[in-house]
Design goal:
- This protein has one domain: Winged helix-like DNA-binding domain superfamily/Winged helix DNA-binding domain (Arc Repressor Mutant, subunit A), CATH 1.10.10.
- It has 6 helices and 6 strands.
- The protein has helices spanning 15-22, 27-38, 45-54, 61-73, 115-127, 144-152, and strands spanning 43-44, 77-81, 87-91, 99-103, 109-112, 138-141.
- The strands form 2 sheets. The chain has a 3-stranded antiparallel β-sheet with strand order 1-3-2. It has a 3-stranded mixed β-sheet with strand order 5-4-6, with no helix packed on it.
- Helix 2 (27-38) packs across helix 3 and helix 3 crosses helix 4.
- Belongs to the Fur family.
């Protein structure tokens, strides 16, 4: 079984790997990146495909997936798993390792730092003789606004 690599680890790639991706700056890639630049929350590849098409762009869904994967590899997008198991993407604004707090109702997301989680992950790995520990933590809940709306509809 292949080990899973969190999206944030792509930022640790060399400048050469990053620049080789930049050389493939196609019209389709620019179109998807422009859509990423205008959205704040996480969205699926299908959402990006629809947004690009609504704006008059012509990019196949398979190409959108490939572009998002390459952006994940370079650390230019954050990727989380939605409640339905689908990968969700948004432009990454952090330069270092971080985690996410996601609203299950509206999709709002916040970057969070969790030093205690970092120490815990290293300790758990070290206790079993592992090094170079990688992990992904996603916290989900209801944001303050959705909590108020749910309470108001009861």
């Amino acid at each position: 079984m292949a080990a899973q690599r969190p999206a944030h680890e792509g930022r640790e790639r060399s400048a050469d790997a990053r620049s080789s991706q930049e050389h493939r700056n196609t019209r389709q890639r620019r179109t998807v990146v422009e859509a990423l630049d205008t959205l704040e929350d996480f969205h699926s590849a299908q959402d990006f495909h629809r947004i690009v098409a609504d704006r008059g762009g012509r990019v196949s869904l398979a190409t959108v997936y490939r572009i998002l994967q390459s952006l994940e590899d370079t650390g230019d997008v954050d990727v989380v798993q939605g409640d339905d198991g689908q990968a969700l993407y948004r432009k990454c604004s952090a330069d270092d390792h971080h985690h996410h707090l996601l609203c299950r109702r509206c999709g709002a997301a916040e970057d969070i730092e969790a030093d205690v989680v970092e120490r815990w992950a290293e300790q758990v790995g070290a206790a079993s003789g592992y090094t170079q520990i990688a992990h992904t933590i996603e916290l989900t809940g209801l944001c303050a606004q959705c909590t108020r709306e749910v309470a108001g509809s009861s």
